[in-house]
Design brief:
This protein is α/β, with parallel strands linked by helices. The protein has two domains: 92 residues, Rossmann fold, CATH 3.40.50.10860; 135 residues, 3-Layer(aba) Sandwich (Rossmann fold), CATH 3.40.50.720. The longest helix is centred in the N-terminal third of the chain and has 21 residues. The radius of gyration is 19 Å and the shape is globular. The N and C termini lie far apart (45 Å). The structure holds NADPH dihydro-nicotinamide-adenine-dinucleotide phosphate. NADPH dihydro-nicotinamide-adenine-dinucleotide phosphate binds next to α10. The site of NADPH dihydro-nicotinamide-adenine-dinucleotide phosphate has 27 residues, from α10.
């Protein structure tokens, strides 16, 4: 069994980015610049933004965080996005979700300049993804594709089952896998909470990709022998035996599934480790178009 190591891959990608940024700065250019808009005090979001700050610094990308309280108004967020859109020194922008209840997230996303939308949330970028046109790839699905490619896991002519149909993970991931390209060309089935006979569908998968937000839901019974398993879920669950009183796990029961499959992404240290590296890659892509 091969453990697909996201930490190593993430470092590889960051090294590549760092090299490019250094050479741009040595050539007298500005550093790339990412803006992050966050509202409220969702702990997972705050942790994610801290991680973005740390990672941007590591590779030499500037990061500006526009932080608002949970009581923020829609107008204040729209103004912030407008300000970022107008600032030629800012190459990429992400709006961290979830936003507070009083905010219509679609309004905020649609206000973003699609050319700076490095998370690929804007309908124009999602549309390009559907059409297979050159566009930013959404960070988490992009991370999965990078892991498959760099571990030389063939997708062409394989049965891929994606469990989860969210707009930020499941759907775009399925779209990437089904693209008419040597890096994709898979036959893709998308499952969700209303799928009948989920277990049987999953056991048809050569590559099983899980993003359901349900800790350790996928057991060995859902997995074909020697399948590749990509676990996108991430959870902190109580564990009195652990030093910190909790442990991190995915949507897949790693211990039993890893005994049956050919390769698997661990949690932590799998897809999640590569997601931010892909966000940085998109920021660099946006920056390169700007010079
Ligand atoms: P959502 O809650 O938006 O979507 C979950 C999807 O899973 C839905 O389509 C839902 O179906 C489906 N689902 C839920 N339960 C079942 C079930 N028992 N059987 C089949 N399908 C089910 O979650 P996200 O896509 O945003 O995130 C999924 C997981 O990935 C979470 O654990 C999240 O933390 C993690 N994540 C990890 C990232 C990373 O970088 N590693 C980034 C983003 C998310 P239905 O549509 O019918 O409700």
């Amino acid at each position: 069994m091969i453990t697909i190591d996201g930490k190593i891959l993430s470092q590889e990608i960051k090294n590549e980015i760092s090299k490019t940024v250094t050479s741009q700065i040595e050539a007298g250019k500005n550093a790339p610049h990412l803006a992050v808009v966050i509202a409220g005090d969702d702990s997972a979001s705050l942790t994610y933004v801290e991680s973005i700050k740390k990672n941007t610094k590591e590779v030499g990308i500037l990061c500006s965080v526009y932080q608002f309280p949970a009581s923020v108004t829609e107008k204040e967020l729209l103004d912030a996005v407008d300000f970022i859109n107008q600032d030629d020194e800012i190459d990429g922008c992400i709006v961290q979700l979830p936003l507070p209840k009083q905010i219509d997230k679609q309004k905020i996303i649609q206000k973003m300049n699609p050319k700076k939308d490095v998370d690929c949330f804007h309908p124009e970028n999602m549309g390009k993804l559907v059409l297979g046109e050159k566009a930013f790839l959404p960070a988490t699905p992009h991370a999965v594709m990078e892991l498959l490619e760099r571990y030389e896991i063939e997708t062409a002519q394989k049965n891929c089952v994606v469990v989860g149909r969210s707009n930020i993970v499941g759907k775009p991931l399925a779209l990437l896998l089904v693209q008419n390209s040597p890096k994709a060309d898979a036959t893709v089935t998308i499952c969700h909470s209303k799928t009948k006979n989920l277990k049987e569908v999953c056991t048809q998968a050569d590559i099983l990709l899980v993003a359901i937000g349900n800790p350790e839901f996928i057991t060995a019974e859902y997995v074909k022998k020697d399948a590749v398993v990509i676990d996108i879920g991430i959870h902190r669950i109580e564990d009195k035996t652990a030093e910190k009183g909790y442990r991190i796990c995915g949507d897949v029961k790693f211990q039993e599934v890893s005994k049956k499959c050919k390769s698997i992404t661990p949690v932590p240290g799998g897809v999640g480790s590569v997601t931010i590296a892909c966000l940085l890659k998109n920021t660099l892509l946006s920056y390169s178009r700007n010079i």
